[in-house]
Amino acid sequence: MKTSSLFLVWLTLSLWSIVRAQAAVHSACVDASVSELMIYNVLTDQEPQDICQLARIPAPHTASLAALKEVHARAAALFAIPVKSLFPQGVKIAINASAEAPNGHYDATPHSISLDIPPYPKSWVNKGTYAHELGHWLANSRHPQLNPAFRGSVGSHLLSETYADAVMMALTMTTEQLYDLPACLNLPAIDDKWTYTMGLGFIDGSFNPYRTYQCCQQTQATPQAQAVCDFKAETSGGEAPARPSAKPFTLRQYSAAFDDHYIGRPMLSFLMALGKKLGGNFYGQLLKAPAPAIAHRCTMTGVSNQVTVAGYRLSGQLNAIQGALTPAQRQVYQALWKAHAMDTAIAIDGRDFAPRVEQAGMKAFILAVPADHECKDILQSRGLQMENPDKCLVSCQQI
Ligand SMILES: [Zn+2]
């Protein structure tokens, strides 16, 4: 009697938790490894809603979830990690239909992705943009099977955006021409033509706002394009962006103020050219290439304990890729290395190395300090911007 009543209690509680779990997140979201899919449609009066909390998924978002599921499945296959292990809690996503498109953001706290798409979209998920943001998500994941050198790219001006693009390219996705926008308003496609000897305007990324501005000077045929151009004109006060410098880029001009989305482009071009000549997915190889861990001990002002973190150099990863090639393939690799002036990438990575290790130190301190420690919030919100420069300062030394 006692056993059976306990069993009934257990059964009732189990059934209740199953019912509650199903009510919490729609099974189609669970199936796509999506924990939340907030939809903000700023041009309608519709309240923002989490699609995953609805009893029935609205028609356009069945396609959104299918697109998200596809990107997740490709990422799992790339890293050879089962999809449920790579995304154990699912990914938290927001989609904004607004004139701020095309854009995407990854937010480290609370580890979520948002996509800005043009108003009145035909399709709500641009798989290329999502794959790029998922690249940030994965680099910030603590999954033990992900390459520590890839995860160590967080906080690098050169590598953070470049590795996010490498994830997009490794999953064979592109942002090109997927929006309801003309080509000149889409994000510029990655090709194999970029080198570190190109004009400064390309390497610092200033060509792109100029390109967009020129595009908007032409008559826009679609209401989506017109809305995007009106928004850009409004936010820039109607002023034309500076003409990009055509002077050849040299390492002396490198500055952390460059647009991080473009300083790694010649490196992505190099990887694309390698893939074309030798066959194979060199973006994927880079993301998975091991590099020697360079141990550092970090201290933080106002805190007595220390943390130990590892730094990984880009040269370590690229050497691993080259080391796996045959002598004939290595000759192709070296010729392309020269053509893309890849020594510059290594030099930029050298300048970028110390801030990257510090970022790893900050992350380690966020975990190490108690929840109520004043540095916790400061470190979490700081990222690469050094607000409160005299507080909670992390510095690291190689050991
Ligand atoms: Zn990004």
What does this molecule look like?
This protein has 399 residues and is an alpha/beta fold. The protein has a domain at 265-398. The protein contains 16 helices and eight strands. It has helices at residues 2-24, 27-31, 59-79, 83-86, 127-139, 148-151, 159-170, 200-203, 207-217, 223-235, 265-278, 282-288, 314-323, 327-339, 343-368, 374-382; strands at 34-41, 49-50, 91-97, 103-107, 112-117, 294-300, 303-311, 394-398. The strands form two sheets. Strands 2-1-3-5-4 form a five-stranded mixed sheet. Strand 4 (103-107) and strand 5 form a beta hairpin. Helix 5 (127-139) packs across helix 7 (159-170), helix 11 (265-278) runs antiparallel to helix 14 and helix 15 (343-368) packs antiparallel against helix 16. The protein is globular. 38% of the residues are buried. Mean pLDDT is 87; it is low at 1-22. The structure holds zinc ion. The site of zinc ion has 4 residues, from helix 5 and helix 7.
Uncertain ranges: 1-22
Biggest sheet, spatial arrangement of strands: 2-1-3-5-4
The distinct bound ligands, ions and cofactors come out as: zinc ion
Task: Report how far the terminal alpha carbons are from each other.
Answer: 65 Å
What's the story with the biggest beta sheet? Answer: 5 strands, mixed
Determine the structural class based on helices, strands and strand pairing.
alpha/beta
- Strand content range: 5-15%
Rg estimate, integer Å: 23 Å
Mean pLDDT: 87
Helix count from the secondary structure assignment:
16
Mass-distribution shape: globular
